[in-house]
Amino acid sequence: MSGNRLTSVTNAVRLIKTFTSVRPTWGVSELSRELGISKSSVHRILATLTDEGMLEQDPDSGRYRLGLAMYDLAAAVPTQRDLHEAILLPMTDLRNRTGETVQVGVLDGRQVVYIERLDSPNMLRTFTDVGRRVEIHCTGTGKALLAFVASERREQILANLDLSKKTSYTITSVRKFQQELDQIRRRGFAENRHESEVGVVSIAAPIRDAAAITIAAISVAGPAERMDPRRAEITQAVLLAAGSVSRRLGYRGGSDDDA
Which pick of 133, 151, 175, 201 has the fewest CB atoms within 10 Å? Predict the structure, then answer.
């Protein structure tokens, strides 16, 4: 073993690699035997990985499985570079068509992280820094992402989602939020109307990769007085941009949502 390798990190990586489609769950004793390390060491590694969201423990059986953080990493690794390359021209065209701020966000756990942004040329515009984390339930990007991921992952996120009230327009009822997601899937796009900040409206649509998996969402955001009169026009422009990015990533139709 190289002198630069840490045994604890190596054991953690080896443990994660034991989780496969053939063997998706493991118990402590099984992992100890499989890896040839003590139960106490396995316990410590499992506790750390669970705290970080890399693993989850079934409360009934006590067995472990891969957590949401692993799915986020898996979705990001093969497509992140391609995504950045694919979005630039459609984003620029969308900003030029609408005159409003254009953003692209991805899911990170139960939040949205904005990875790209082009500002509106107008003096009055919305400001969201690249790298900023925002809530899923009260943003157009977040709702578009959540509505179009696979139903199993969506239910996992919804199970512990904090529907905190940002404005008087924010949806805080689980039932109403699920109805909103159903409506978004039917119409193909999401809206945030004063839900995160009064006076701000955004429209978002999902971006899919070659495997028909929703990996990001693109949105246009701006003041309600400019967005509302052009709602249909902006919605169509967002859908066209999302479709353009998706095609650049190899998407050719179908749906990643198995609901």
Answer: 175
